[in-house]
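Consider the following assembly input.
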Amino acid sequence: MAAVWNNPDVQFVFWALVKILVILHAMLGMVSYMIYAERKIAGHMQARVGPNRVGPLGLFQPVADVAKLFFKEEFVPEGANKVIFHIAPMLAVIPALVTFAVVPFGPLDALRVTDINVGLLLFLAMSSLGVYAITLGGWSSNNKYALLGGLRSSAQMISYELAMGLSTIGVLLMAGSLSLVDIVRAQEHGWFVAFQPVAFGIFMITALAETNRAPFDLPEAEAELVAGFHTEYSSMKFGLFFLGEFANVISISCIAVTLFLGGWNGPWLPESLKFLWFFAKLGVLLFFFIWVRWTFPRLRYDQLMGLGWKVLLPLSLANILVTAGVIWWRAQG
Amino acid sequence: MIPFLFVAFAALLVGCSLMVILHKNPVTSALFLVLAFCSLAGIYLLLHAEFVAMVQVIVYAGAIMVLFLFVIMYLNLKRDVEHGVHIALRRGAGWILGALLLAEGGLMLARRWAPGPTSTEADLSAPVGNTLAIGQSLYTRYLFPFEVTSILLLVAMVGAVVIAKGRGPGVHREPPAGASGATRGPAHPPGSE
């Protein structure tokens, strides 16, 4: 037994699995309480109190909601493509959760699953795979509202992915590495949001669009499309889409904290507690997401495309040029 | 560990590729192609080509296949449209070309040939990552092909825009034969509604 345990490969796999298990469950817990926070904040913004019946301050509401989702009747439409209809909700959750594998929550090795030298690209890859869930869910339901929702979402996510990828290049140029840990270490003496305010703005706008949050929630615009791509989904399959959306919000906020807000960097706390800074910044960004949702009206479809292609894309390209120019100029003299 | 993973990814790749051409439903075929791209990315990872692996997922699985799927789904392809070369001729050509490719692969395997150089000037297997190496060789030694490729893409893009805009109200052109000869109204893209 000891011989097996002393094998470094076995140890590596064991600790990786432990970390994955912990982070996975922490994130799933965070998702359910983010839904609670969203309802509570939305309530207060509309001069209501929000959920307050289940448990003190309504704190057990997420538990009740999830239990309810599990016991709801599962419904598959007659003309649906059964296999794809079942796969789509899984595809909504998996990419969002895989992203957490590269997020450095703290400076210690124990606080991240792995540090790969293409961490940022992994995040972009996963966010580009996220579009399949919505497109396939909308298509396989055999419902015209769902189809239109899926169609809108593929167009929207492809358009905004481009600007999002380009907005991270400014950070990349300054940090000189694709590893998220190196990017955080490069921000020890100043967060990149100070040097890259335009990129940060573009990143946050595209993050809203990538996660299909208001004001970019056209794929599920209830006024026009009933519920959009998940019209035909019920029970925990609907729950998985919901989970995927919120997990996406959290993972994209984690990346925003890492790229622009200095990650775990912050004053006062010792190394072992620096992850608290990360979570404080994450909390601020998550509040921002909710705040935006209950503040801005939804964009019209042509406005959405116009903003993505004619404003954000040229702006992010200009940002890259200026950043590269300044870096080159400073290297010269 | 590595040989085991390689066999797993390779088997997945071959299986998915077969399903791409054998499955009846074009959407399912496209999804198998996505899976094939992802397993190819896995093989790249095993070769320490992390950058290529991630770009494979971003570009092929994430962007190109989404557009592919988009077209397949919304064109509502019910069956193969019989146009152009006769089907028997196409099938015969396919068999011959496939047999040639298989023979070529067998020959290469038997002689242990690799397609392309087996070693490059840059040490791409360095553990610190090869993104830097790829960037440097792409923007110095291979700058010209790189730029030519981008111009090619730009030309294709301009062509697509011209084709899409061709029948708008701004361009004076004869309406295509058989088009219902009315409504020169405000810009509706052809084929909308």
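The longest helix of chain A spans residues 8-45. Ask yourself how this observation constrains the way the partners meet.
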